Amino acid sequence: MSAIFVALSQCPARPQAIAPDRRARAISLPCPRPRVEQGTPEGVRPLTAVLLDTSCIVALLDRSERHHQECVDVVSALAAPLITCEAVIAESCYLVRDLKGAAAAVVENVDRGIFQIPYRLSGNALGVTKLVKKYAGVPMDFADACLVDMASDYHTGRILTLDADFRVYRWGRNRPFELLLTI
Q1: Domains assigned to the chain
Q2: pLDDT in tens, 2-61
């Protein structure tokens, strides 16, 4: 993610345009460049988002899960934003439905911005469908397909998952995922 800075400079002087009826008069033209510029200040490293899978969310909330402590430690040490999709949130809520307050905790983490959901299926449905067909032999579920598609959209293969299928899946142009948890 890059920081956004507002450029306060005015547009450079532009030549006057000639009206279509050929009489010389000024026509106001909009500034040709945006007034918002993106960049990273010197000495500041932009953070690459980390993808968040269902298995990590479940392990974070279920203390009886054998990877619970590892997930807590890794997530606590990360400064990068945790991004996921609505399919992962729905799947997580379903899987923790028998743990008192766990589904509510998942939704609360979304509400507080701890689990960010920048991904929308509309506009990405074709790519997700292609991924499900491509990995039909693995097989790939809907949430995994959304995460693989997100990896390309957000330029990151860093993922918090306990799902070994992410060793098989590829994002971008055949790039492997960087699994941040020990499977």
Answers
A1: 50-179 (3.40.50.1010)
A2: 332 222 233 344 334 334 444 444 444 444 444 454 555 666 666 899 999 999 999 999
